[in-house]
């Protein structure tokens, strides 16, 4: 049945008059759990950017930053896999993920990225910590870094490749938000765990990643049309805003972190929280957009109206 | 329609079973034509499906949504009858006397004839519709399934292999119709199988066999499409101008549904999306953007290592 009361209330905003079946959702809300899946997203991004950071640090002779990067990449990707397995309805069948390679499934592609990536980074970190087999350590670290950029963005495709309006409709911008967030989170960990003298690239990563994340988020919300509401309003909007505030504060502190250890720690913590909050906010926003039939019906109706206008 | 020459991800596709790798001599593609104009809301389909497929009940709460206490399709509800009560404007359409008993004494009825425009009860129309998995030509659930648990059958339908599914839940938000879900008791995803275990024996699916009004019509999809076109013309001739088909077009966003409908109002009134699109239509573009972003991340990180040691 249409919802005359709701529609009347909504038609006040931007002509969002729509009909539905007792206000029931049209698509199913993702069954993915919190904190498993937001953690999976955050940790995967952190691991990817940390792996690149480690290789470049090694090349430029920054041994501490190399160690931080290798460890963060290994811990991040392993924990990411654990979070993913924990989220499965049948965790014992996790290996079925590698049963086939399906280019049409971002989760299949992602599994084939994260499985070798986490093994390679684990080997690189083990060698770094134990000091054994340095050549193998270096080789595995470099091999992992080939997969690293993909680690920072494949999860964006994973979310976008659904019928969830809050994720699908922003598929162009979402990977850039994730990329920025990943770079800044690795920078944050670099600042936290590396002596200031070696942490200059980490500080720059924190700043550049934050800038990319903020710019891409802004563009994403602008281009999302009516769906942008889920990134501005309600609980999901609050989380997204909190992430932005934390990003700004963290980036500000990163500017001072060259001179002050306290500022470096503050920046590292703020940006870590910011990156996690960004993923959680986006996850939550998608769930809201799935739950409310408005975000399915209104954009589809607009599309039909535009097509009708174009052809007629 | 699609940037893809052979329409593997979206657009019209003549034979999804062949595209999935079956030899051309596979059985004909089958489906459902659900003609909601004759549905009486008896829910025999819901019950038959539960019985045949041994699905547990979903709880017995009252939803307040007319006679629909089933509420939606789900992991253990593969048929769902929607009930819509609508107030209609009797000045624009004929009302039908269905011979309901009234409060007058027998014999006095001539004086008590009710003016239909004044009686609120006669100004309601019922829309009932038995919803089911659409067995999409381009099924998003199948595309995104990482384990290969979801498959295209030789009949062109879409089915979960329960012994392969690891319960990742990706198919759930991928379906543009909100059909498939995971079962809390087993952890795996499940949905309508088109009664695969009956098709092999030449039987009609349980829901269609149980339908007393032939609202659910089962058969080869091409035949059903012809029959549906005839039925819609017939209804239009009878003045039911609001009759329309939904999901029958091979050119739509999912390449046409294997289970399509004749509706008497907009799809969203029945809880169906007005213009569903298979999400993987945009997958090539998604990967391009993700590759661009990944490159941006790599270049950004590299740039951070250039320059002084400040
Ligand atoms: S309706 Fe949904 S569950 Fe059914 S085949 Fe299409 S995408 Fe899959
Ligand atoms: S829940 Fe099962 S059927 Fe659904 S996508 Fe995952 S493995 Fe495939
Ligand atoms: S075809 Fe079989 S499984 Fe599908 S809804 Fe009908 S009875 Fe249930």
TrEMBL record, chain A:
Compartments, as annotated in UniProt: Cell membrane
Membrane topology recorded in Swiss-Prot or TrEMBL: Multi-pass membrane protein
Gene Ontology cellular component annotations, sorted alphabetically: plasma membrane
InterPro entries: Electron_transfer_protein, NrfD-like
Pfam family, one: NrfD
Keywords, comma-separated and alphabetical: Cell membrane, Membrane, Transmembrane, Transmembrane helix
Source domain of life: Bacteria
Gene3D superfamilies documented for this protein: Formate dehydrogenase/DMSO reductase domain
Family recorded in the similarity comment: Belongs to the NrfD family.
Name of the protein in question: Polysulfide reductase NrfD
From TrEMBL, chain B:
Binding site for [4Fe-4S] cluster 1: 39, 42, 45, 211
Residue ranges of domain 4Fe-4S ferredoxin-type in the record: 30-59, 124-155, 156-185
PROSITE patterns for this protein: 4FE4S_FER_1, 4FE4S_FER_2
One Pfam family per UniProt: Fer4_11
Location, primary (coarse class): other
Gene3D superfamilies assigned: 3.30.70.20
GO biological process, one term: cellular respiration
Cofactor descriptive note: Binds 4 [4Fe-4S] clusters per subunit.
Binding-site positions, [4Fe-4S] cluster 3: 133, 136, 141, 175
Cellular component GO terms held in the UniProt record: cell envelope
Source organism, top-level taxon: Bacteria
Listed cofactors: [4Fe-4S] cluster
Residues at which [4Fe-4S] cluster 4 binds: 145, 165, 168, 171
Subcellular location: Cell envelope
Protein name per the record: Formate dehydrogenase iron-sulfur subunit
Organism expressing this protein natively: Halosaccharopolyspora lacisalsi
């Amino acid at each position: 049945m249409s919802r005359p009361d709701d529609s009347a209330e909504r038609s006040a905003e931007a002509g969002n008059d729509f009909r539905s079946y007792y206000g029931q959702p049209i698509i199913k809300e993702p069954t993915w759990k919190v904190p498993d899946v937001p953690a999976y997203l955050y940790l995967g991004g952190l691991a990817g950017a940390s792996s690149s950071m480690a290789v470049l640090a090694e090349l430029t002779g920054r041994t501490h930053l190399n160690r931080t990067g290798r460890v963060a990449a290994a811990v991040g990707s392993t924990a990411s896999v654990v979070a993913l397995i924990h989220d499965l309805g049948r965790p014992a069948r996790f290996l079925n993920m590698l049963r086939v390679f399906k280019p049409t499934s971002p989760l299949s592609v992602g599994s084939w990225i994260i499985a070798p990536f986490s093994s390679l980074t684990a080997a690189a970190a083990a060698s770094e910590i134990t000091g054994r087999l340095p050549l193998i350590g270096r080789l595995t670290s470099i091999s992992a870094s080939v997969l690293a950029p993909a680690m920072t963005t494949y999860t964006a495709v994973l979310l976008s490749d659904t019928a969830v309006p809050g994720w699908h409709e922003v598929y162009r911008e979402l990977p850039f938000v994730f990329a920025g967030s990943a770079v800044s989170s690795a920078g944050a960990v670099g600042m936290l765990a590396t002596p200031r003298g070696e942490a200059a690239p980490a500080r720059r990563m924190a700043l550049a990643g934050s800038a990319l994340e903020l710019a891409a988020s802004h563009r994403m919300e602008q281009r999302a049309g009516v769906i942008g509401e889920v990134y501005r309003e309600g609980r999901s909007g609050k989380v997204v805003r909190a992430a932005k505030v934390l990003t700004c504060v963290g980036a500000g502190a990163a500017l001072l972190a060259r001179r002050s250890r306290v500022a470096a720690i503050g920046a590292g913590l703020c940006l870590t929280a910011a990156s996690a909050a960004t993923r959680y906010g986006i996850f939550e926003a998608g769930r809201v957009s799935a739950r409310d039939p408005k975000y399915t019906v209104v954009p589809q109706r607009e599309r039909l109206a535009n097509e009708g206008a174009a052809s007629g | 329609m699609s940037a893809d020459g052979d329409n593997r991800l979206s657009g019209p596709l003549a034979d999804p079973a062949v595209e999935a790798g079956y030899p051309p001599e596979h059985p004909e593609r089958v489906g459902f034509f659900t003609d909601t104009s004759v549905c009486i809301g008896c829910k025999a389909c819901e019950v038959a499906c539960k019985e045949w497929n041994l699905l547990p009940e979903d709880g017995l709460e009252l939803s307040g949504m007319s006679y629909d206490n089933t509420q939606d399709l789900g992991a253990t509800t593969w048929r769902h009858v929607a009930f819509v009560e609508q107030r209609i404007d009797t000045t624009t359409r004929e009302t039908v006397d269905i011979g309901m008993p009234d409060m007058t004494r027998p014999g006095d009825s001539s004086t008590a004839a009710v003016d239909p425009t004044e009686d609120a009860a006669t100004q309601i129309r019922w829309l009932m519709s038995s919803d089911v998995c659409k067995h999409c030509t381009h099924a998003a659930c199948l595309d995104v399934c990482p384990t290969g648990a979801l498959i295209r059958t030789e009949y062109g339908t879409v089915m979960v292999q329960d012994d392969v599914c690891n319960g990742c839940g990706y198919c759930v938000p991928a379906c543009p119709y909100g059909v498939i879900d995971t079962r809390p008791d087993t952890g795996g995803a499940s949905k309508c199988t088109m009664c695969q275990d009956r098709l092999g024996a030449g039987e009609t699916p349980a829901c269609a066999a149980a339908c007393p009004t032939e609202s659910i019509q089962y058969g080869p999809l091409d035949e059903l499409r012809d029959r549906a076109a005839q039925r819609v013309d017939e209804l239009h001739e009878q003045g039911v101008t609001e009759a329309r088909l939904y999901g029958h077009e091979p050119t739509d966003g999912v390449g046409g549904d294997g289970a399509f409908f004749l509706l008497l109002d907009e799809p969203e009134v029945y809880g169906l999306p007005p213009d569903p699109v298979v999400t993987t239509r945009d997958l090539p573009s998604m990967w391009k953007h993700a590759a661009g972003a990944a490159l941006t991340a790599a270049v950004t990180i590299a740039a951070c290592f250039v320059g002084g040691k400040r």
